[in-house]
Structure formats: C-alpha cells, structure tokens
Design brief:
With 150 residues, this protein is α+β, with helices and mostly antiparallel strands. Helices cover 16% and strands 49% of the residues.
Length: 150
C-alpha cells in the first residue's frame, strides 16, 4: 500500500512538468500581433437600509442641559448601482493619474425616513415629528481624475 501511495505522489509531482512540456515561447513577430487593454470595469448593484440613525448631544445647551437626540427611524436609502464604471491609470512626463469614470447614474431611487423623533435617548419612541421622502434621486459623474502632488 505504501508503494502505491509513493508512486501516486511521484506521478502527481511530474504532472505539472509534463503539462509545460508542450509550451513554446512566442516570437517577437507573434507578440506584435497581440493587442490588449489594461484597466478594469465594475458592474454592481447594492441596496442599503438602516433601521435607525441617531444623533445626540449628551450635555444639551443652556438652559436645556440634559441629553437630547434626533432619531431617524425606518431609513431606506436609494440604490447604489455601479454599471460600466471604469478604473484606469495613465500619465504623462510629469503626472500619473487614476481615472474613475462612468456613463450613467451611480445612485438612483428614493430616500425615505419613516419617523423623525426628537427625544431624550437614541432609542426614543416619543411621537414622530413626521417623515421625510426624497424621490427621483439620480447622481452621476463623468470622470474623476486623481493624482498625487508635492
């Protein structure tokens, strides 16, 4: 049984060598025929939601010196959709740039905050002051160029 295991191990080690045996180097003429493009393209869609967003001040303000909070509950954020976002690097003799570009909206949809509560803690459930809705959101950009500087 040991001999069979050793033979299998040796054969597995020789497998990568035999796979490369048929490979040949490409000539300069053959390489001149090859064209390629660098950079990456990203396509992604993401939905984001937050149950509660709260902002508080633990010492208040004069003459109201106890803690106070604004609580945004039932937060539903717009869709973030990255489609055909390209990332590339290029430069000239003095500067190298990172270019991030897109041709469409990266944020679309509506923002909804179901309840706006003003209370004494981050978990306050006092009566809501109402809700906030923003619809028809569309945020886009052309190309962002980023470079270092001295």
């Amino acid at each position: 049984m040991k001999k069979l295991f050793v033979l299998a191990a040796v054969l597995m080690m020789l497998l990568p060598v035999s796979a490369m045996a048929g490979m040949q180097a490409a000539s300069d003429t053959e390489l001149n025929e090859v064209s390629g493009q660098t950079g990456i393209t990203i396509d992604m869609a993401m939905s984001v939601s937050a149950g509660t967003i709260a902002w508080g001040d633990d010492n208040g303000f004069a003459p109201y010196t106890t803690a106070g909070w604004v609580v945004l509950a039932g937060v539903d954020l717009p869709t973030i959709a990255l489609s055909n976002v390209t990332i590339d690097v290029g430069g000239n003799t003095t500067t190298t740039y990172l270019a991030i570009g897109t041709t469409g909206n990266v944020v679309t949809g509506s923002l909804t905050i179901a309840d706006v509560v003003i209370g004494s803690s981050a978990t306050s459930t006092t009566p809501s002051a109402g809700e906030i809705r923003i619809s028809g959101i569309g945020i886009s950009f052309g190309t962002i160029m980023i470079s270092g500087h001295n």
